[in-house]
Amino acid sequence: MIPKVIKKIIENKVNEKVDETLEEIAETEKKLEEDEKMIDEIEKHKEEPKELEVVEIKSKYDSESKVLLVSCVDPRFSDDFRKFTRDKFGNFVHLSIPGGIGALVLPDLMPKPFKVLKQQIKFIVNGMDIEKIILISHDDCKWYKHNKGYFRGLQPEQQKLDITSAKKIIEEEYDIQVECIHAGLKNGKVVFVS
User: Fold this and answer.
1) Would you say 180 and 167 are in contact if contact means Cβ atoms under 8 Å apart?
2) Which of 23, 89, 92, 93 has the fewest CB atoms within 10 Å around its CB?
3) Model-wide pTM > 0.85
4) Whole-number Å distance between alpha carbons of 186 and 13
């Protein structure tokens, strides 16, 4: 037989657990009610999906591009690269890669970037009937600074050598006109020099 004191202790403990469980059930029911209200509110404001409107935009360029621009991705210059090229040559295909043509002159030191760049140029020139390639380098190129260990010269001089070398490489590979341009900063503006 269980003494009355122990029986009372057990009864109190059971009652405490029952009370805790009942409180947890009440809290859960309250949260469910709140969730249901939120779902109802969302359903009230839910809109049916709209059909997308088809908008046709006529290009301001009537012909396909025959010009390929190869330049660096530097955001300080990229808008100016595109504006300059569009103003001078019309519509164009833009191949934007860190360092521009830098990897093209380093086949032994940077074989993967060299191969990728060469394949991209080949695809664009052959697949899009490109007749002219514009190579643009620029002042303060971060790719050249980052990879300075690969080069013998100082950055501006190295870029001039590289763009000339890249021109020769491309002209030997394709029967195509290549123009080299350097973009510099002068009084806060981008200046292009052939």
Assistant:
1) yes
2) 23
3) no
4) 84
Domain residues for the domain of 24 are 1-53
| Torsion over CA: 111, 114, 120, 122 (sign) | negative
Residue 120 one-letter amino acid: Q
Tell me which residue of 159, 172, 192 sits closest to 81, measured CA to CA.
Answer: 192
* Dihedral Cα 168, 169, 175, 181, nearest 10 deg: -50
* Eight-class DSSP state of 142: H
Q: CA separation (Å) from 131 to 135, 144, 151?
A: 13, 28, 31
Amino acid identity, position 70: V
| Cα(101)–Cα(79) distance, integer angstroms | 18
Per-residue pLDDT tens digits of the chain, which is 194 residues long: 667 777 788 888 888 888 888 899 989 888 888 888 888 777 777 666 667 777 676 655 555 778 999 999 999 898 999 999 999 988 899 999 998 888 888 888 888 988 999 999 999 999 888 999 999 999 888 888 888 777 666 677 888 888 999 999 999 998 899 999 999 888 888 888 88
Same domain, 152 and 181: yes
Tokens of residue 22, six digits: 């009942």
Is the domain of 38 the same as that of 86? Answer: no
Number of domains in the chain: 2
Residues 137, 101: Cα–Cα separation, whole Å = 8
